[in-house]
Amino acid sequence: MIKRLHTYARDFLHLFFPHYCEGCGSDAVEEKQLLCLQCLAQLPQTGFFGVQGNPVEKTFYGRLPVNAAGAAYYFTDDSLVHHLVIQLKYHGNSHVGTYLGMLTALELSAGGRFDTIDCIVPLPLNEKKLQKRGYNQAALIAEGMSQLLGKPVLLKAVTRDVFTESQTTKNRVSRWQSMRDVFRVEDAGALANKHVLLVDDIITTGATLEACGTVMQQVPGLSLSIATVAWTI
Ligand SMILES: [Zn+2]
Questions:
Q1: Tens digit of pLDDT for each residue in 110-124?
Q2: What's the 151 CA to ligand 1 centre distance in angstroms?
Q3: What is the largest CA-CA distance in the chain?
Q4: pTM
Q5: What average pLDDT does this structure show over 100-116?
Q6: What residues does each domain of the chain span?
Q7: Which of 11, 15, 77, 103 has the fewest CB atoms within 10 Å, i.e. is most exposed?
């Protein structure tokens, strides 16, 4: 199964990505690949998806009940993962998102603990940020994962409103409270009794995913798992 996924991913990536390695600039990269094999092999895998009680799951202990959670790669300053995420979030390099999503899905599948997922929900962006960036990077990652996992992406099931007050002036508790308030389930019917995979680019404190997940768990019978591309140490 995993071998088949890898073959499929390679063929798929071969079709869609440009000719120079995004990591080292080398042209020793298969046509339309994003990374050369050397850079691909150097990505710092966490192995978290296969491990119960991994650091990402521990982040949510006592805060948000999750079925399983994990991140594919370590996120460190000046690393290739850092470079790719910056390209995705701040340089309009949208195809990086789909690519990272596919890589993350490969790691997740290899972990073997996410087999019962029904659908994928990207952490929503508010409308203002969406307009500015032109896309939701989490949605692109979710789309890449969907290509490999064969599960649908629900783009409109959960939405996020713009903050009405400056976050920086608030203390931690009220900041969390206001964050929770901005997420809203728009299509509870699509999420009810489903095992939902909530997806984002990076997990740091987990506060935003916690806020979104808390709102989602008000949907009857919803079971939540979380996957991100990277985890900050
Ligand atoms: Zn390279």
A1: 999 999 999 999 999
A2: 30
A3: 51
A4: 0.87
A5: 96
A6: 1-42, 44-232
A7: 77
